[in-house]
Design brief:
It contains one helix and 40 strands. By secondary structure, the protein is mostly beta strands. It has one domain. Strands 4, 5, 37, 38, 39 and 40 form a six-stranded antiparallel beta sheet that branches. A six-stranded antiparallel beta sheet has the order 13-12-11-10-28-29. It has a five-stranded mixed beta sheet with strand order 2-31-30-26-27, with no helix packed on it. A hairpin with a 2-residue loop joins strand 14 and strand 15. The two termini are 28 Å apart.
Length: 478
């Protein structure tokens, strides 16, 4: 008999439990894949949902589901996946690009795939673009969809002069250059480039940390790619180190929420935790005083913080398990993205196997989880704790998905009961209290929450696996 599981068994302090079940639907058929740990969902491709399977020295396969989650076709891409191949997926309305690069070589492949699975090779056009616009042909290129336009970006580090050059090329549908820009900015010894991204068709945003004589530095750069006009915002800490910083960007007003863990230097006898948070406008001016959250964060193993519903939940002080779809082997640290909001994570297929970062835990259970709600001044207004110390029944803080529907920010978290699995939805109500709601699901499946994707203002879709079988799960959000 099929088993469902509904969990409310952990102890919750100051947290509202909602017994209303979310409606779920499973795909009618499962896909039998060679390597279930190397799958990627591309949801809502003109109403279809594509589940891609990758395996070294094999052809990638696309499993196509319709709106009713029925498997309607299976397409094999006519390309034998080589070893040491990095894979990126770039979604556009109605289609997506599949980019593959053999690391440290000039071997690049680019395919355009529509909703029905028609595969259009664009490799020759892409190689011509690389040859004409970029100096380093062996680089792995970042391809982005900004305002429904295709941008190709690459970074070059000039160590002798302490500079980075970011080359940005906007192309048309035939990959002919429409706009080319070279952005040059300082990058000296002791600095770490945490994030470089195009936030819109005008601005490049970079986030750096550094250890300088005046102290530990967190620096935000915003560069207009058309004029080169650069705004810099720098924060200095004399004692603590900025660790794993991130930016939550608001596309509506170009404002952003800057945050970082604050940790003591190596060798320090202190073990205090704090979170730096600051709200910036489009000109990088502070719209609220800097907030430094500490105290209660020291007493929980993992912390999730929600500043506003227009931003996603922030995960801090969690031994975050790396996505099953990411490898850092040979990854260039200059393009490392600590706060990776991109659910289409890069894939690395190495020597016929999919490589993952090994999990490294020093505990038998994850420990308690704190959910914190902030007001517009970044002050704590609600604080809820889930006691999470039963090794047989616990919530996994390392396995979660986050999304925003109808201007409300949600977390979907995995619950473990021995060998059984459940899901829990987390959000805040109108009184800013944290609410948890169990989602009744088949308890034998492994749910890939990192690939959860909202499809409309009513539901989300995520993939799951069970042995060599993989499928899709739809969850309606009431």
């Amino acid at each position: 008999m099929t088993k469902f599981i509904c969990l409310s068994t952990v102890l919750v302090a100051y947290c509202v439990l909602n017994s209303a079940a979310q409606k779920v639907q499973y795909s009618r058929h499962t896909a039998v894949v060679n390597y279930p740990d190397a799958i990627q969902l591309v949801a809502n491709v003109s109403g279809h949902h594509h589940l891609l399977s990758f395996f070294g020295k094999h052809h990638p396969v696309i499993y196509i589901y319709d709106q009713k989650l029925q498997l309607v076709s299976q397409i094999k891409i006519p390309y034998l996946l080589p070893p040491d191949c990095e894979i990126k997926i770039v979604p556009f309305p109605g289609y997506y690009y599949l980019y593959m690069h053999v690391q440290k070589t000039a071997r690049h492949e680019l395919w355009k795939i529509n909703d029905t699975g028609k595969v259009i090779p664009l490799t020759d056009l892409f190689l011509h673009l690389v040859q004409s616009q970029f100096k380093n042909k062996n680089s792995s290129f970042k391809i982005s969809c900004i305002d429904n336009r295709l941008y190709v970006m690459c970074h070059t580090y000039f160590k002798e002069i302490g500079k980075i050059k970011t080359t940005i090329v906007q192309t048309d549908s035939m990959l002919s250059p429409v706009l080319t820009r070279n952005i040059i900015y300082n990058f000296t010894e002791g600095e770490s480039l945490q994030r470089v991204t195009l936030t819109n068709s005008n601005d490049l945003l970079a986030l750096k940390t550094a250890n300088r004589t005046e102290g530990n530095i967190l620096e935000v750069l915003k560069v207009n790619i058309h004029t080169g006009y650069t705004i810099t915002k720098t924060f200095t800490s004399e004692g603590s180190i900025y660790s794993d910083p991130g930016i939550a960007y608001n596309v509506k007003d170009s404002g952003m929420l800057l945050y970082s863990r604050m940790r003591n230097p190596l060798g320090s006898t202190r073990n205090s935790r704090a979170v730096f948070m600051c709200r910036l406008n489009a000109l990088l001016n502070e719209t609220q005083p800097i907030a430094l959250l500490k105290g209660r964060l020291n007493y929980t193993g993992s912390n999730f913080i929600l500043a506003e519903n227009q931003y996603p939940w922030i995960s801090l002080f969690t031994f975050r398990r790396q996505s099953n779809f990411v490898s850092n082997r040979n990854r260039n640290s200059l393009t490392r993205n600590i706060n990776n909001e991109d659910i289409f994570a890069d894939l690395n297929v190495l020597n016929g196997e999919h490589s993952t970062i090994p999990y490294n835990y020093s505990y038998s259970t994850p420990g308690s989880i704190r959910f914190t709600r902030l007001d517009e001044r970044l002050k704590i207004i609600r604080d809820s704790v889930i006691v999470n110390n039963d090794p047989k029944r616990y919530i996994d803080p390392n396995n979660f998905g986050r999304f925003i529907i109808k201007n409300k920010s949600y977390l979907l978290m995995l619950q473990r009961f021995g060998k059984r699995n459940g899901l829990m939805l987390v959000y805040t109500d109108d009184q800013n209290q944290v609410v948890t709601s169990d989602v009744r699901v088949l308890d034998k499946n492994e749910y890939i929450l990192s690939q959860l994707q909202p499809v409309s203002d009513r539901y989300v879709i995520l993939p799951y696996k069970n042995g060599r079988e993989a499928g899709l799960l739809k969850i309606e959000i009431e």
